[in-house]
Design brief:
mainly alpha, 7-stranded mixed sheet, globular, transmembrane helix, membrane, transmembrane
């Protein structure tokens, strides 16, 4: 049977990893052209290869290289610096995808997703409550209501009262609160805008039309389902609910204060009735928001383009209407009303912390129940990685909200002591308790780091003996051996991440419970609560309070400095982009205000490119992914039609598919999922090094393991100076896998396996492969 010469053409589609790179660096040629895509993400070729399909004879025995560059999805313009504010939302979204692998436990899986969404909702309320604490309590209520504080700040003059308690129209507390509420309301609007705009820029890409093969079973892995990378319905629904929750939080901060005064002042009955109606409307609105969040999760079996328009449109509009009515109610004249002390923030923040702790504990129970049915020794924290990560998201939210409140209070207070004459009371007591637990938490972190350092030293000693066997016949060089062994030992620290995260999250939960108990039991900051106790207790409490306040202030300053630098400096923005490369791979399933999922653009890009190229040329294709690019490559391969997937070879290197994703996201990258991927593509080869802190072997069970994993590459390539390496060879670690001769050998072996032709049957009922392919082994 004759074949067109175009059928012999092979394509190598390169996908880079974290941090990004340039097309010239990926293709090894400064002259590149864009063949598809835009300024955000695109496919490039060398200029000499632009018309490769028209010259197939020039590419016999070698592939046409293409580079898919997606780094601008995570580190583009300066607005990405604003994403630092969304860090807790990103972390809780990761917790959603860390669910243990479940077999026929639909209700438990739904309960897991529901609990994570509730944690995400609490984080939105916490962020908006922190903005209300600063704008309403510290500025409008305390400082503007204290003559000495407002006198030093002329911009508060129209809100303040004089020494005799007299002021202008805006000086009444209700009106001050209504005006200041514009700040947290604007924050909610900004979050809504960012979520809506980034959806159109990143996640609105249409996935490849997926027509199921009659001979193919329904995909067991969710990553292969048609609607996995298109979550418009859920994101829009959650965005409406979280926007409404934020607006209701602002309305509660303004309206309940006025309603409390009306109930206790003996004022007009009409205002008292309106206040009670307002409180009832807030309760009903809260119930509706919680119902909307709990009602629906992700739909992945089909591309769901339907929107819940009633929820998406009416819920935020109703919350905004209620907020405006609250402003009118609070702005009603109440000449007798005076602001003193604090707004009731302790109860608000305490309630949020209590709810978060209870939901995280419930999440841990559900995760343990799922993991118990399908135990896997490689899963991080025995299936509790999701609850631990959710706890860290709550801690991040608490630190960020507490840091802002503490810094603003210190700025308004000057050098005064909170509560003294002429000064403000400061933020809620609970925030001081939360800041005070930071020093003991850091002590725990230091202890864990010391244990890991000791383990690393012991591992380095063992690796020192191994280096000599890896480079036989080389003259011994103690410094060179120490450098290689040290690099290997430090690379192994990645496998200890569950220990760090588990310890930190557990201690955070316990210390948070202690801070909440102390704040509610004493109603005083730790230093004052410890007065009159043992000297050691009093000293420790005062030290923890002072150090905590200083540390949280330092963290806030570093956070602002980092964000400002990222806004101005592209290199710093690219460094922050590495964080987003890892954290925003997954769709927004738990929090709509999380940074956008770049994979909802990148995966359709790759699948469309592979499908259209194979359809047009009938050629062979090697999907070559480095680091995070290997994760995108695997996700794109799962989305391909079976007939296309069987014509694809997968080459991964420096890949975190098992080491990070398989351990932390077992439901989607566990052994069963990766084993199925190995059987569905034509062939797969994985390269790794012991010096690589990110990549590692795939570790498929049985005979599949050696077929996929190449033995660990030698790094460095030469111990000392040789004819091939007259200068000392560098220790490459996670970078430059293509410089290793094994890379070219394995790529050529994969291309040799991908013989074009009519697909033929595989033994044992395996998916068909093109005729001419050898067995599955590529060793």
């Amino acid at each position: 049977m004759e074949r067109d010469t175009a059928d012999e053409t092979a394509l190598e589609l390169l996908v880079h990893g974290v941090g990004g790179t340039t097309p010239a660096a990926m293709l090894g040629d400064p002259r590149t052209v864009r063949v598809s895509g835009d300024d955000t993400a695109a496919v490039y070729r060398r200029a000499d290869d632009a018309d490769a399909e028209a010259r197939p004879d020039d590419y016999r025995g070698k592939p046409v290289p293409e580079a898919y560059v997606w780094c601008n999805l995570t580190s583009g313009n300066g607005s990405r610096a604003l994403w630092l504010l969304l860090l807790p939302f990103m972390v809780v979204n990761l917790a959603h995808w860390m669910r243990p692998n479940a077999h026929r436990r639909t209700r438990t899986v739904r309960a897991y997703g529901l609990l994570v969404r509730l944690v995400g909702l609490s984080l939105t309320v916490l962020l908006v409550a922190a903005a209300c604490e600063v704008a309403l309590d510290l500025v409008a209520w305390q400082c503007a209501g204290t003559h000495a504080c407002a006198e030093e700040r002329s911009w508060l003059g129209f809100l303040s009262v004089d020494a005799h308690g007299h002021g202008g129209w805006w000086s009444q507390p209700g009106r001050r609160l209504a005006l200041a509420a514009a700040v947290p309301a604007a924050l909610v609007g900004l979050l809504w805008y960012l979520s809506h705009r980034t959806w159109g820029a990143y996640e609105s890409q249409q996935p490849l039309p997926h027509q199921p093969d009659p001979e193919e079973e329904a995909p067991t892995n969710a990553l292969g389902r048609p609607g996995f990378w298109y979550g418009r319905r859920l994101v829009a629904r959650l965005r409406a609910a979280h926007t409404a929750a934020g607006l209701l939080t602002v309305a509660a901060a303004v309206g309940t204060s006025a309603a409390r005064f009306d109930r206790g002042s003996g004022g007009p009955v009409l205002l008292d009735v309106l206040g009670r109606i307002l409180d009832g409307a807030l309760v009903v609105g809260t119930g509706i928001v919680v119902w909307v969040v709990c009602r629906r999760g992700r739909s992945e079996n089909t591309v769901d383009r339907t929107l819940d328009r009633t929820v998406v449109r009416l819920l935020p509009a109703a919350a905004l209407t209620l907020l405006l009515l609250t402003f009118l109610y609070a702005g009603w004249s109440r000449p007798e009303w005076r602001s003193y002390g604090r707004l009731p923030g302790d109860a608000t923040f305490g309630g949020i912390v209590l709810v978060q702790g209870a939901v995280v504990v419930a999440l841990a129970v559900v995760a343990h129940a799922i993991h118990r049915r399908a135990r896997d020794s490689r899963v991080a924290l025995r299936g509790l990685g999701g609850p631990a990560t959710a706890m860290l998201a709550c801690a991040l939210g608490g630190v960020m909200s507490g840091g802002v409140s503490q810094r603003v209070a210190d700025w308004l207070d000057g050098s005064g002591t909170p509560g003294a004459d002429g000064t403000i009371e400061g933020p809620p007591v609970l925030l001081s308790w939360q800041a005070s637990v930071i020093p003991p938490l850091l002590i725990v972190v230091a202890v864990v780091c010391a244990v890991l350092a000791q383990r690393t030293i012991r591992l380095k000693r063992r690796e020192t003996a191994t280096v000599a066997t890896d480079y036989p016949g080389e003259p011994e060089d103690a410094a060179r051996t120490s450098a290689i062994a040290g690099t290997r030992a430090r690379a192994a620290l990645t496998d200890q991440a569950p220990m760090i995260i588990g310890a930190v999250s557990t201690v955070t939960l316990l210390l948070g419970a202690g801070a909440l108990t102390g704040a509610w039991a004493t109603h005083q900051v730790p230093g004052q609560a410890a007065l009159g106790t043992y000297d050691i207790v009093e000293g420790a409490a005062q030290t923890a309070q002072a150090m905590g306040s200083w540390l949280i202030g330092l963290g806030f300053i570093l956070f602002v400095t980092w964000g400002r630098r990222a806004y101005r400096d592209a290199s710093a923005r690219r460094t922050i982009g590495i964080l987003w490369d890892v954290g925003t791979f997954w769709p927004r399933a738990a929090h709509p205000f999380a940074p956008p999922c770049y994979a909802e653009r990148a995966v359709p890009d790759l699948t469309w490119r592979m499908a259209t190229w194979t359809r047009a040329t009938g050629g062979r294709l090697v999907l070559s992914g480095h680091s995070q690019g290997s994760v995108l490559a695997a996700a794109a391969a799962w989305q391909l039609h079976p007939t296309v997937r069987r014509r694809v070879a997968l080459l991964t290197y420096g890949s975190p598919l098992e080491r990070l994703y398989g351990r932390w996201f077992p439901a989607h990258f566990g052994p069963a999922a990766l084993g199925a991927l190995h059987r569905q593509v034509d062939c797969w080869r994985n390269l790794h090094r012991t010096t690589d802190p990110i990549g590692g072997p795939v570790r498929l069970p049985g005979e599949d393991g050696p077929q996929v994993d190449h033995p660990a590459l030698k790094d460095p390539l030469a111990y000392g100076r040789t004819e091939q390496h007259p200068l000392p060879a560098p220790i490459l670690g996670h970078s430059d896998y293509q410089a290793d001769p094994v890379f070219a050998e394995e790529r050529a072996r994969l291309l040799a396996r991908l013989r074009p032709g009519v697909p033929g049957p595989r033994p044992d009922g395996e998916p068909a492969a093109p005729q001419g392919s050898s067995g599955k082994s590529s060793s």
